[in-house]
Write a structure and sequence with these properties.
It is a multi-pass membrane protein. The protein is of the alpha+beta class. Strands 5, 6, 7, 8, 9 and 10 form a 6-stranded antiparallel β-sheet that branches. A 4-stranded antiparallel β-sheet has the order 2-3-1-4, sandwiched between helices. Helix 7 packs antiparallel against helix 8 and helix 11 runs parallel beside helix 24. The longest helix has 35 residues. It is elongated.
């Protein structure tokens, strides 16, 4: 058996991976028992569940504004449910309609999670006109829930249940209803994607291995990694904020990398057995080559996901932590549980041979392709580069905005309710920008401060696109500045009921709240410009305001991502370069690998904008086009940058083995491509199958994530690793292996040691 790939001189001490293989082989029973115990702990954690949240970013201005306004009934809409009551025959002024509404809302009011209920039943006529639709059959009520987003979302099912049996059709909408529907859909999408991805992966594995036993092993490792990864996320959610999306990310990445790593190891093990090695020899050789590649690949993926940790205080950081955790499990199981199973199976790994089985020799197709690429590198390189760059051009038109109600399928209650609200109650459905004015202390409605608030509301009303301003000093129409100041000086108990209600709704502590209404969509350029205009002049007398709401959160999220992206990208690229430098002992190849990764990412990002933002294929994929979620590009960058290293490490490791053996760069590149091309495309096919299962998701963000990753992996494994990388390495010749003097001498010694070996 040849010693190719081992960097130590022949006859030297066995490598770390060789010693690991011997240890696993001799203690395979203990390893499998330990895996079963870990699986039991994971199942226990899954049954206990977790405390997952929505995607939030701490410390941004929009969040600070929401916190300031939280005590005001009209401050934030995040915990408010809009309930539309309807009856085809009863009119809203009929006593039985009013009685049904009153009875239903009374049941809601008794719930401990409910803070307040606003209903037009029995309210003044001016107020009632806003909450009764011109149809005469529809009425709007508002329910404010206690706590933050997490608590309010958890309370949604109780409110929905309390409204049952009223005799009226009830439709609930608002952010709480949206989040509840989103969480339910994410859980459903996750289950459906896993149920689809496992059979798809199995079909590809059966085609690759042609035996049932070998094909099942990667699925076992993938299932273990995902189960333990999800369990770890649920446990972490009890001590830190973990977004619901994290489970989808963990499942998406964990299943793909675990199956890929297992594919590499099982393929090499079977190849070593075919050369006449014993089971222990085959296992040792496998972990010393493919195992080494898996370890470095896992490190590269973890480094990539580690870039998300630079977004501290956001859900991105939690996703990075969860992703790194599942990759660690994938590497752990691929290097321990899988070798233990292989040690137990031995030659039986080829049991269950399928009828279409065939001998797997050195494929003529890959030999022909490798030869052609070596002979015509420029003809391969230039057109392929041009194609990838052309695919990336749409990324220049990228627009970012947070996920909103349009991310839900059209049939969901929250989306139907939002559309009904916009049609019947346009003022209540208008985009609202929150302005929370904080004064140094004391009453925010002294005569002087009330006058300043009145002036500020007039100034805001003059801004482009503003429909009106709701506040304690503008709720009653026709009040000029002098009247506002007189009312502010009067004792609260002497004020008209409308003004008393306004004070209670728009004032909390030393904070006065204003809601700025605009007809522009929350994610529109006009709404964003309004937020920026409001932030230009914050002074209100001796107070200052903070701007919040959905549009402000979009602006702040985009700025947050932009601010932290350079450090994250620099870390990922720098650490990946170091990992490859240590593995390949070359300065040139890591830099080339970074460039290749950027090319495949450019193509994927361009396709993402072309499809999901500009709406191409929206009928086929069944989604509504719109701006891209701010976190998606950086999440894909960090995940895919590491995943792309799977194939880079596998290809370059095999090329380096040949170069160390022969010293002939052209031969090494051709041989490496010929021997790994089929494995790379097979592994990519599995990843694409896993990721493609997520394109069937109901939530657009998950659909975009799955398709974006599938496109990137497909481009990386075909155009980049199989064509561009070999062509560039052919053109660069021996310069590929240039490195520091110490490692050049080490490589030279390794070549001298292996120069006389005969390759099977």
């Amino acid at each position: 058996m040849s010693g190719q790939g081992d960097d130590s001189p022949a006859g030297g001490a066995p490598s770390l991976f060789a010693r690991l293989a011997v240890g696993v082989f001799r203690r395979r029973g203990r390893v499998l028992v330990g895996a079963l115990l870990l699986l039991g702990a994971a199942v226990w954690a899954l049954l206990r569940g977790g405390d997952l949240t929505t995607g939030t970013i701490e410390g941004i201005e929009a969040v600070r504004a929401e916190a300031l306004a939280r005590g005001a009934a009209a401050g934030s809409n995040d915990q408010t449910l809009a309930i539309i009551f309807h009856h085809d025959e009863w009119t809203t002024d009929a006593p039985r309609f009013a009685q049904a509404v009153t009875s239903a809302l009374a049941r809601v009011q008794r719930l401990p999670e409910v803070a307040s209920v606003v209903s037009p039943i029995g309210a003044p006529e001016a107020f009632r006109a806003r909450f009764v639709a011109p149809t005469g059959h529809d009425l709007l009520a508002l329910v404010r829930l206690k706590g933050g987003e997490r608590e309010a979302t958890a309370a949604f099912p109780a409110v929905r249940a309390a409204l049952e049996g009223s005799g009226l059709q009830t439709t609930l909408t608002g952010k709480v209803a949206f989040l509840a529907a989103l969480n339910e859909l994410l859980a459903h999408d996750l289950l459906r994607a896993e149920l689809l991805s496992f059979p798809l992966a199995l079909l590809v594995l059966l085609w690759v291995f042609r035996t049932v036993v070998a094909a099942m092993l990667p699925l076992v490792v993938g299932g273990l990694a995902v189960l333990c990864g999800v369990a770890g996320v649920l446990l972490l959610s009890r001590v830190t904020n973990m977004a619901q999306y994290t489970l989808n990310v963990v499942s998406l990445i964990g299943l793909g990398v675990a199956i890929d790593y297992s594919l590499f190891i099982v393929s090499r093990f079977r190849a070593e057995l075919a050369l006449g090695s014993t089971t222990e020899q085959a296992l040792t050789r496998t972990l010393d080559t493919a195992g080494r590649a898996v370890a470095f690949s896992g490190l590269a993926v973890t480094v990539g996901l580690g870039g998300l940790l630079f977004f501290r205080g956001s859900y991105l950081s939690a996703m990075g932590l969860g992703g790194a955790l599942v990759v660690a499990f994938a590497v752990l199981f691929a290097l321990t549980v899988l070798p233990a199973l292989l040690a137990w199976l031995g030659p039986r790994v080829d049991r269950g041979r399928l009828p279409f089985a065939r001998m797997q020799g050195r494929g003529g197709g890959w030999h022909a392709l490798a030869t052609w690429v070596m002979r015509h590198p420029w003809w391969v390189l230039l057109p392929t580069l041009a194609l990838l760059l052309a695919m990336g051009l749409p990324f220049r038109r990228l627009q970012l905005a947070a996920t909103d109600i349009t991310a839900l399928p059209e049939g969901t209650e929250a989306r139907r309710g939002a559309e009904t609200l916009a049609r019947l109650f346009p003022r209540e459905a208008a985009t609202r920008v929150l302005v929370a004015v904080e004064f140094p202390g004391g009453n925010p409605l002294t005569p002087e401060r009330a006058g300043a608030l009145h002036d500020a509301s007039r100034r805001i009303s003059a801004l482009p696109g503003v429909l009106g301003v709701e506040s304690a000093v503008t709720l009653v129409p026709g009040m000029d500045r002098a009247t506002v100041q007189r009312m502010a000086a009067a004792p609260p108990q002497l004020l008209p009921p409308e003004l008393q209600a306004a004070r209670a709704a728009y004032v909390t502590g030393n904070v006065a709240v204003m809601q700025v209404l605009t007809s522009s969509a929350p994610s529109s350029v006009e709404a964003r410009n309004l937020v920026r205009a409001l932030r230009e002049d914050r002074a209100v007398g001796d107070g200052r305001w903070q701007v919040g709401g959905q549009t402000a959160a979009d602006v702040d999220a985009a700025a947050f991502v932009k601010q932290h992206t350079p450090a994250a990208v620099g870390f990922v690229m720098g650490m990946t370069c170091i990992v490859l430098f240590v593995l390949l002992r070359s300065v040139v190849l890591p830099l080339k690998a970074l460039l290749m990764n950027l090319l495949s990412l450019a193509g994927s990002f361009g396709a993402l904008v072309f499809i999901f933002q500009e709406g191409h294929l929206h009928r086929l994929l069944r989604f509504e086009p719109g701006p891209i979620e701010p976190s998606l590009p950086i999440l894909l960058f960090c995940a895919l940058f590491g995943l792309s290293m799977d194939y880079e490490v596998l290809l370059l490791s095999r090329i380096r083995e040949e170069w160390l053996r022969t010293g002939d760069n052209t031969h090494a590149v051709a041989e490496g491509l010929e021997r790994t091309g089929g494995l790379i495309t097979s592994a990519a096919a599995i990843m694409v199958a896993v990721f493609a299962a997520f394109t069937l998701a109901s939530v657009v963000v998950v659909k975009a994530m799955g398709l974006g990753m599938a496109i990137a992996v497909a481009l990386d494994a075909t155009l980049v690793r199989v064509l561009i990388v070999p062509a560039m390495m052919r053109l660069m010749g021996d310069f590929n292996w240039w490195g520091p003097g110490h490692w050049r001498r080490s490589n030279a010694r390794a070549q001298g040691t292996r120069g006389t070996e005969v390759r099977p």
